[in-house]
Amino acid sequence: MLSRRHFVKSLGAVAAFGARGVYAQPPQPGPATPPSTVSTPPRDFSPNAPPNTYMDPDIVVVDPMFGRYVLGNTPIKRLWTGALWAEGPAWCGEGRYLVWSDIPNNRQLRWLEDDERVTVFRNPANNSNGNTFDFQGRQLSCEHLTRRVVRYEHDGTVTVIAESFNGKRLNSPNDVVPHPDGSYWFTDPPYGRSLYEGKPEPRELPTAVYHVDKSGKLTQVITEDQVPDPNGLAFSPDYKKLYVVSTGRGPGDAGPGGKGDVFAADVASDNTISSPRRFADFIVDGVKCSPDGVRCDVDGNVWCSSNAGRSIGYSGVTVWTPQGKLIGRIRLPEACANLCFGGPKRNRLFMAASQSLYSVYVNTQGAAPG
Predict the structure, then answer these.
(1) 221 touches 284 (CB < 8 A)
(2) pLDDT digits (tens, 9 = 90+) for 302-321
(3) Is 261 within 8 Å of 226 (Cβ atoms)?
(4) In this structure, what are the phi and psi dihedrals at residue 190, rounded to the nearest 5 degrees?
(5) What b-and-e string marks burial along 67-91, b requiring 16 or more CB atoms within 10 Å of the CB?
(6) Average of pLDDT values for 132-139?
(7) What is the pLDDT of residue 360?
(8) Number of domains in the chain
(9) pTM of structure
(10) Are 206 and 220 in contact (CB under 8 A)?
């Protein structure tokens, strides 16, 4: 969720995309006006906007193989707006609702599927960031303010999963994912050590990725030297690969921080990690589409949020094959921080983007709960 802090300079308006009837605005000398315009004619995302024309012009097929994942008769919808910085969407299958964080406002919000009503779910929420649900349907949250990972039990009690390592407090856990063996994996960058999203306390640990087994044993599995400033996190469908987003410099960083890339690492049967390597550099048409959140579908494709700063038309979502090939994009009028698959069939993509929550149905399913 840091990529927004290092906005790339505008590299011009959106290039033309000709695949599968998708249209884009012609080249212009600078950013589009108003900045929410990403398609031609300008799109209205307000609740009372007229229906969108099929197929949605902001679903961009970069490679024909993305066509199998696109539904031609469904639009991108803005479900709600009103956050300061929306993060960490997670789907509760049992409750049929989506929960996400509004970090600066120190609250969690909930979108109910039955009537699309949005309510405040938790307030205060300890400046929570990433959320997910484990295989038992329990919500996990990463808290910036308290520097810990917690689990909300079915009876409403809170269990602290992790808050320190080797006697030192964590930085500000950012994203967490469950494993079928009952373990949890989470990232610990420094972004919650700011006044806006947590508390400006001194750091005690380098940034890292951690594994917590069922007994509560905490192990550092990826170091700062391997993946600086780890952020979003996701497993491949077979749990043999771990994707880790590496974002930019944060509070207390002595070095330059991450470069807005995603790394892929191999996961052994004993949960050890090997061979972390860059998955993709996220340069699209010369524009840096900096990732933050990441999720995989059942075919192993990697869906990443995109924050392109002032390069209008490149924020939203980028979609990559397991081999690191860009095949598609979803354009949003706001920088996207995180995403998840949800709905009863796990075929609805939810996108937490700056101040708003968006969704679109896709022709695939998410590979994991939450």
Answers:
(1) no
(2) 999 999 998 889 999 999 99
(3) no
(4) -100, 10
(5) eebbbeebbbbbebbebebbbbbbb
(6) 97
(7) 97
(8) 1
(9) 0.90
(10) no
**pLDDT band (50, 70, 90) for residue 322:** very high
Q: Is residue 140 part of a domain?
A: no
Q: Assess if residue 145 is contained within a domain.
A: no
Domain carrying residue 99: 3-126+232-361
- Give the DSSP H/E element, type plus range, for residue 63: none
Residue 152, token pair as written in the block: 């909300």
Cα atoms in the Cβ-side hemisphere of radius 13 Å centred on 187: 30
| Listed residue (203, 252, 246, 204) closest to 225, CA to CA | 246
Residues 360 and 347: their CA atoms lie apart, in Å, by 9
Q: Is residue 138 part of a domain?
A: no
11 within 8 A of 289, measured Cβ to Cβ: no
User: 307 has which bridge partners?
Assistant: 290
C-beta separation of 160 from 169 below 8 A: no
Measured in residues, the chain has a length of: 370
Which run of H or of E encompasses 226? none
CATH number of the CATH domain containing 312:
2.120.10.30
pLDDT digits (tens, 9 = 90+) for 69-80: 999 999 999 999
> CA 120 to CA 63: how far, in whole Å?
40
What pLDDT, in 10s, does the model give residues 6-15?
433 333 333 3
Residue 5 is classified by DSSP as G
